[in-house]
Amino acid sequence: MAKKITGNNQYLKELNKATVLNLIRENKKLSRKELSDLTGLSPTACGSITRELIKDGFLHETGQGESTGGRKPVMLELKPNSYYAVGFDIGMSELKMVIADITANILLQRQFKYSPGIPAGKVIELIREKFFETIDSEKLSADKFIGCGLSIPGILDRKTNKIIIAPNLSWNEVDLGTGVSEVLGMPAFMENEAMCSAICEQWIGKCSSIENFICINIESGIGAGIYIGDAIYRGFSGSAGEIGHLIVKENGRLCGCGNRGCLETYASVRHMLSEINEKVQNGYSSDIIDPGMGALSWDQIVDAAYKGDELCIEVLKKGAEYIGFAVAYLINTLNPEAIVLGKCFTDYAPLVMDVLMATVNEKALKYPVSKVKILTSEFGMNSSALGAAMIPIRKIFGK
Amino acid sequence: MAKKITGNNQYLKELNKATVLNLIRENKKLSRKELSDLTGLSPTACGSITRELIKDGFLHETGQGESTGGRKPVMLELKPNSYYAVGFDIGMSELKMVIADITANILLQRQFKYSPGIPAGKVIELIREKFFETIDSEKLSADKFIGCGLSIPGILDRKTNKIIIAPNLSWNEVDLGTGVSEVLGMPAFMENEAMCSAICEQWIGKCSSIENFICINIESGIGAGIYIGDAIYRGFSGSAGEIGHLIVKENGRLCGCGNRGCLETYASVRHMLSEINEKVQNGYSSDIIDPGMGALSWDQIVDAAYKGDELCIEVLKKGAEYIGFAVAYLINTLNPEAIVLGKCFTDYAPLVMDVLMATVNEKALKYPVSKVKILTSEFGMNSSALGAAMIPIRKIFGK
User: Fold this and answer.
1) How far apart are CA A13 and CA A28, in angstroms?
2) Are A343 and A197 within 8 A, CB to CB?
3) Cβ pair A82, A21 in contact under 8 A
4) How far is A381 from chain B (nearest CA, A)?
5) A238 three-class SS
6) pLDDT tens digit string along B332-384?
7) Tens digit of pLDDT for each residue in B291-303?
8) Which of A79, A139, A204, B134 could cross-link A60 (Cys pair, CB 3.0–4.6 Å)?
9) pLDDT digit string, tens, across residues B152-188
10) What is the pLDDT of residues A49-80, one digit of tens each?
11) Does A215 touch chain B (CB under 8 A)?
C-alpha cells in the first residue's frame, strides 16, 4: 500500500529544530543570520526556533562573533550540562556506565563487576542502584536525563524490543529495555554492542565525517557495526554484522555455531586465551612465561607479548592474519571508506598491525583497498558504553 | 562545512511530481481525490501537478473508478508508449539491447555478436548503428527516448564517469558514457552489470517490495549488486559487490587476482568450463560425453548435466556448494531479506539448489538464515540489459 505523506506542521517544526541543532553541532557556533542562510528558513522562523531551543535549554548565547560589516552578531552554541544521557554496556562479568551531556561531553565513566551468568532481572536492579547512587553523589538531577542507551552483546529484535539471543549472557528472548526504562523513569534504547561502538566512532570518534564504515570489535566474540549512507545498518531483521563466523580454515577448530574453522575460533580473545593457556599447561615456558604462573589472564598475555614472548606473539599474529581475511572480504564486498578495529584489539594493535595490513593488501582487490582507511579505535573497551550514551543524545539531532 | 538546505520551489515541484508518479505506479490507477489523500497535497496542487504530467505525456486518464458515494471518479495511470528508454549490456562477445517504455513494458530485446577484445570506440559505433537501425524499423521516434543505461562488467568511478577496469573487456580508464550520450543524443548512465541486475529485480522482478537484498550473478566472473534501505549501494568509491574473491579453499586454484582458492576459481562459468574440458581432453567420457565432441560449450555442459553426466553434475554441485559459502557469509554480515541468484546460475539451478541450500543452512547463523529468502532470477542472461533500460525510467520517479 502507498504510504501517506503528511504535511504535518509539528513534524516539520521538529525537523527544523533538528536541522538547526545539527548545524550548530557541526559548526560549533553560529549566529542567527548564519543559521538563516544555511537553512533557507526566514529570519523570523529561525528566530522562533532558536528562541524555543534556548528556552528549553538546548542552546545558549555565547559571546559575539566576527562582524561582517554591521554589529557583531550574538553566537549560539549547544548548552553544556543542560541535559544528560546515560549509557550502559552489559558485559559478561561487568557493567560499564557512562554519563554524558548533550554536547557529548563525558561527565563520568564507571565499571561494576558481577558474576558471569547474571540474570536480566539482576542487571536491571544493578542499573537502577548504580544509576541513582551515582547521580546522587554527583548531584545530578534525574529529571535532566533524556534517556538511556543499552549496549547488548547479542542479536536484538527491534519489532518486539527483545534480545533474541545473547550467548555470553546466556539470555534468550529477554526484554531488558522495558525493565530499565521503568526503573530509571526514562526512555531506554537497546543496541547491539558492535553497533554501539560504531555509533561512538561516528558521534565522537574517527568516523564523524565518514558515511560508509565498519567497526570490528575483537572481544570474547567478533562482531561488526556497519554504517551505510551515514546511517546505522542493522539488516532486515536486526542481526547484520555477525562477521565472526567467516570460515578462515578448512576443517579448523570447532566453533560454538557448529561449524569448523570460524574466524572467532582463531582471532577472538576467548580462543586466543585458551590456545595459549593450553600450551602453557602442556609445559610451554619462556623467559617471560613460567608454567608456575598458572592460567594466564588476557592482560598477562598482552604484557608477555610486548615483552617478546614467542608463543603470545605468534597467537596474536595468527589471529590478526585471520582478521585480515575478514577485513579484505569486507573491503571487496562493501567498499567502505574506513574500517575501525576496536575493543581488545587496541591492546595489541601495535604488535600485529603489520601482519594484518600485509594480509589485507594481499587478499583484497587493489582498487577498493587503495580507497580504504584501516584504523584502530581510540576508545578501547569503552566504545560500546560511550556509544550507548550517545543514542539518546543523537535523537535530539533527529538521528 | 554545513550543507545549505534550500526551500527551492522548482525542487519541491519535481519532488511532488515524482511522488505522484510513484504512487500511481505502485497502485496502478488512482483518482485525483486518492492522490490528494495519499500525498497530503491540496486538491488544487494535485490538480495542477496531474495536469502538467498529463500535458507532458507521463499520465493519462483511463475510464472511471469505483464511486464512494458521489460521481464515479476519473482514474489516472502511467501512459504507455509515450516515452522510451534503451538499455545496453556490454558483454565479452555480445551486445544486448532492450527498449522499454516508462511503464516498464519491454518493447523489444536484441543481441548482437562481436569478437572478444573489441575496443570501446567500436562498441559506441555498434550502439549507434543498432539503435538507429532498430528504432527506424520499429518506427519509434528518437525524440521520445529519455535516456540510455549501460551495463558494464567492471568497476566504475562515478566521479569521473569512467570505467576504471573491466577485465573481461580489457578496458581501463574508459569513458563510455560520454561517447554513447553523444552518438545517441540522450543522457547515458553507466552502471555495474550486477547492479543492473539488482535494479531489474527491484523495478520489475522479485524484489519490488524488498528494501535490503543482494543479486549474485554467476557468469565468467561472480559479482553482486547490493540494495540497502531501498537504494542502490555502491560503496565509498563505487566498487561494492566484488564477492568473487572470497577464499573458499586454502591453497586452492590460482585466481586472476593473484590469490589462491577464490570463489570464482570454482564457481564461475569460465572456471567450471575449463575444469570439465580439461578432464574431457584427458580422456573423461560417459554415455553422454564423447571425447570426440571436442571442447564443450556451456550449453553442452548444462545439457549433459541434465542428462545425468556425472562429471558435469559434480562440477556444478561443487560450484554451488562454494556459492553457498559466500551466500552464508553475506547472510551473516548483511542480514538481507532476499538473495537472488542469477545469470548463468538460472540455467542449472534445479540441479544444484539442494546442495546450495544445505550449505547455506549449515554455514549461516540460524537467526538470519531463518529470515532470508533465497531466490533464482526469472530473467536469466537478460537481467543486466533489462536493468540498464530501467535506469533512465527510474529517474522520472526520482530514484
Assistant:
1) 22
2) yes
3) no
4) 22
5) coil
6) 999 999 999 999 999 999 999 999 999 999 999 999 999 999 999 999 999 99
7) 788 899 999 999 9
8) A79
9) 999 998 778 899 999 889 999 999 999 999 999 999 9
10) 999 999 999 999 997 777 777 778 899 999 99
11) no
Quickly tell me which residue has 523570523 as its cell: A44
Q: Can you tell me the distance from the alpha carbon of A211 to that of A202, in angstroms, rounded to the nearest whole number?
A: 9
pLDDT at A140: 97
Q: State the burial class of residue A69 (Cβ atoms within 10 Å of its Cβ: 0-12, 13-18, 19+).
A: exposed
pLDDT value at position A70?
Answer: 77
A4 contacts B38? CB cut-off 8 A: yes
User: Cell digits for B227?
Assistant: 540494495
Residues linked to residue A247 through DSSP beta bridges, in sequence order:
A262
Q: What is the ipTM of this complex?
A: 0.92
CB contact under 8 A, B362 and A2: no
The pLDDT score that the predictor gives to residue B17 is 92
Pairwise CA distance, residues B344 & A170, whole Å: 44
Query: Is the minimum CB–CB distance between A157 and chain B shorter than 8 Å?
Result: no
B240 interaction partners in chain A (CB closer than 8 Å): 333-335
| Rounded CA separation B22/B14 (Å) | 12
Q: List the 240-279 stretch of A: residues with Cβ below 8 A of B.
A: 240-243, 245-247, 249-250, 257-259
CA distance B264 to B272: 9
Closest CA to A333 of A207, A231, A224, A201: A224
Locate the chain A residue with the closest alpha carbon to B333. Answer: A241
What's the pLDDT tens digit per position in A176-199? 999 999 999 999 999 999 999 999
The C-alpha atoms of residue B377 and residue B373 are separated, in whole angstroms, by 12
Alpha carbon distance, N-terminus to C-terminus of chain B = 26
Cell of B338: 532476499
User: Is residue B40 scored above 90 in pLDDT?
Assistant: no
- A 78-137 residues inside an 8 A Cβ radius of B: none
Q: What is the H or E stretch that residue B180 is in?
A: helix B176-184
| Gap from A8 CA to chain B (nearest CA, Å) | 9
Chain B contact set for A364 (CB, 8 A): 245
Average pLDDT, chain B: 93
Q: What are phi and psi of A59, to 5 degrees?
A: -120, 160
Contact B394, B87 (CB under 8 A): no
